[in-house]
């Protein structure tokens, strides 16, 4: 530790540049992970808010909630600890009837019962109480300027929906969620196909909390209904799995390449000091002492460099606009930090072999 730290203090510029290179590599990797994680979460945060164990859809819907339609009383055919009905439909909203195409917002309508367990938490305003009132994701406020009391004109429906509250972390398939009554959902869902109010008892899904949180404990008494574990349903969201796999492979390769580059970088850096090691060995300093100093020095550089990279990423996140899907997950960031530090120390361990083989006479000459 003494030798490692004193060498860093003696050659400040050299080690500052090394730490800078490590920090930039870490910054790139951390930032891309934040973007990939944020994009993946925007597909599913509304489903995660249910804290459910399973979902019941029609068998013919092929795990696609939009294609699943059943009578609302199908909830009586489901046996589980807690159940809640849900109507879901994509739509397009215009704020206060503005006609500019830039003001159109793609939204996902969730028709629910306001006292059910899938009702959202309200962070501003109140929960909707009547038809044509809605609680919306606060990204509509941050990104599109929607305020409490604004009127949202939904595609195909003449009567506007009034925004009475905001919730957080409520996106479904990247679109912000608009929570409203089941009747309002049906008006929006069937406005063009059958007329307002025609399909007055249709829902898309039944959300379930199972006994012992095990979807296997959920039973249905109708053959055309099927129970899916909630994670299975989320993985089947259109485009979600392909997106996660694509970004996962891309970041996995990036981490491996970064780890190899850093390992080689440390190895070459240690080789450049072979002459110094030869002099130290000629003075009687043991291989073990020098090797330990190399490893400790690498560990110090890695912690400082990668810590700086993580800090830059957190700082950048403070200035990103709300529209950028960037999220920080401490578990992923911590795991990546340890992987990068480990790869650096591994590169230093390969260097130790070189230190042991240094011949003092050849190094000095």
TrEMBL record:
It is a multi-pass membrane protein. The chain crosses the membrane at residues 15-40, 244-269, 289-319, 331-352. Its main location: membrane. It comes from the Bacteria. Keywords: Cell membrane, Membrane, Transmembrane, Transmembrane helix, Transport. It comes from Culicoidibacter larvae. This is Putative hemin transport system permease protein HrtB. InterPro entries: ABC-4/HrtB_transporter, ABC3_permease_C. GO terms for cellular component: plasma membrane.
């Amino acid at each position: 530790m003494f030798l490692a730290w004193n060498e860093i203090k003696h050659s400040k510029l050299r080690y500052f540049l090394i730490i800078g290179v490590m920090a930039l590599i870490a910054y790139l990797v951390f930032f891309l992970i934040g973007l990939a994680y944020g994009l993946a979460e925007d597909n599913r945060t509304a489903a995660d808010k249910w804290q459910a164990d399973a979902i019941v859809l029609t068998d013919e819907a092929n795990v696609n909630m939009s294609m699943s339609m059943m009578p609302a009383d199908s909830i009586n055919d489901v046996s589980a600890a807690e159940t809640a009905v849900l109507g879901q439909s994509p739509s397009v909203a215009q704020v206060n009837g503005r006609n500019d195409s830039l003001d159109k917002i793609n939204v996902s309508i969730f028709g629910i019962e306001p006292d059910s367990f899938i009702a959202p938490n309200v962070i501003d305003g109140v929960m909707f109480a009547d038809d044509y009132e809605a609680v919306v994701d606060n990204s509509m406020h941050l990104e599109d300027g929607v305020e409490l009391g604004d009127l949202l004109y939904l595609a195909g429906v003449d009567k506007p929906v009034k925004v009475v509250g905001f919730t957080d972390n409520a996106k479904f398939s990247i679109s912000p969620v608009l929570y409203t009554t089941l009747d309002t959902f049906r008006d929006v869902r069937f406005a063009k196909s059958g007329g307002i109010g025609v399909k007055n008892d249709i829902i898309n899904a039944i959300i379930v909390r199972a006994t012992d949180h095990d979807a296997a404990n959920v039973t249905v008494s109708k053959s055309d209904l099927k129970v899916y574990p909630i994670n299975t349903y989320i993985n089947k969201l259109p485009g979600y799995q392909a997106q996660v796999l694509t970004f996962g492979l891309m970041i996995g390769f990036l981490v491996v390449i970064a780890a190899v580059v850093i390992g080689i970088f440390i190895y070459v850096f240690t080789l450049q000091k072979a002459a110094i090691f030869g002099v130290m060995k000629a003075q009687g300093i043991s291989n073990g002492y020098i090797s330990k100093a190399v490893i400790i020095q690498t560990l110090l550089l890695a912690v400082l460099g990668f810590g700086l990279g993580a800090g830059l990423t957190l700082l950048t996140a403070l200035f990103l606009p709300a529209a950028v899907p960037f999220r920080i997950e401490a578990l992923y960031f911590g795991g990546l930090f340890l992987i990068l530090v480990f790869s650096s120390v591994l590169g230093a361990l390969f260097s130790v072999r070189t230190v042991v083989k240094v011949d003092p006479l050849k190094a000095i000459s």
